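User: ok so my PI wants both of these folded by tonight, can you help

Assistant: No problem, let's get them done. Here's the first:
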Amino acid sequence: MAAIELIKENPLNPTALEFSGHIEKYRSPVEAMKLMRYFKTGKGQYGEGDVFMGVRMGQIFEMAKAYIHMPLEEIELLLQSPIHEIRTGALKLLLNDREDLIHKATGWMLRSAGQVNRPQLQKFLDKYAATMPRTLLRYSIEHFDKPLRSHYMGLKRAG
């Protein structure tokens, strides 16, 4: 089923509720357990309390393409979700926003995520840094050492 088919109410104004319902279709308890171990969500661990549905990042990013017209107010609701994958989807929606303040806020969120799990942030940046708005990238790598910041700032779009 195509992602766009799941946006029933108004494809030019999708809601956080529609996004959450759509992502629910990809839920995997087995994958959720793996993610909970990886992100160390147990008592006293750095990811304590984070909730996972078990949706793969590729599925989230592909699904997010159908929601590019989601209003900022709805994306804000997604960012408040206790569910990791829903917040990740919200960040993906903000990644290519044209507003400079959104770039700063998204970079700040990525930087905060990197304080919890630096390898995961670097994996994300390895994939997207070349195409990210520069302000967003600068904010997200602010706590990296100078050589690593230079590496990511030096990545350019192909073509």
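One down. Here's the second:
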Amino acid sequence: MIWGKAFEKEYRKNPVATQHEFQAFLNTWNDDITDKELEEIVGSHQSNACSWRFPKINFPDSYISFLQYSNGGEFENGDRYFQFFNIFEIREFNIAYHIPKYMEYAVSFAMDENGNHYLFDMRHNPINGEYPILAASSGNLGYDDCKLIAHSFREVCSGKISIEDILFEK
């Protein structure tokens, strides 16, 4: 996919990370929760995060390709708005929203303007190198209430219906 033509609107295209930063991200994004992260979670009286885990799986090549085009950023197609996390935010946002607790094997990579998450569903092996994409509300995280919105990263990026409309059947 030619990312420069993938979206109708580019509100904010971010500079790409250096090769060193990008490789460090790929090697560490799914490390176990660190002692410092655990302290912060427990210190905020949120939860005992000792059992939280990130999937020990690689991101799809299409997503890696996008990050090499724009390290996060804000884009839109039709009514579908994306606030993609950059490589320095992905882990932080997933921990802050307790994704590993409520949706084990899911990884949030973006949000819309209403606080809904776009997530890779990594519970099963990828199909043609891609994971399904789920939409979930920040206030109601869990597999029971999320919706499948695409079968691949490219497909979700080309969609035009807002995930708010899909989640709440507007």
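Residues 11-167 form a domain with the SMI1/KNR4-like fold (CATH 3.40.1580.10). Helices lie at 19-28, 35-43, 61-69, 90-96, 99-102, 153-158, 163-167. Good luck tonight!
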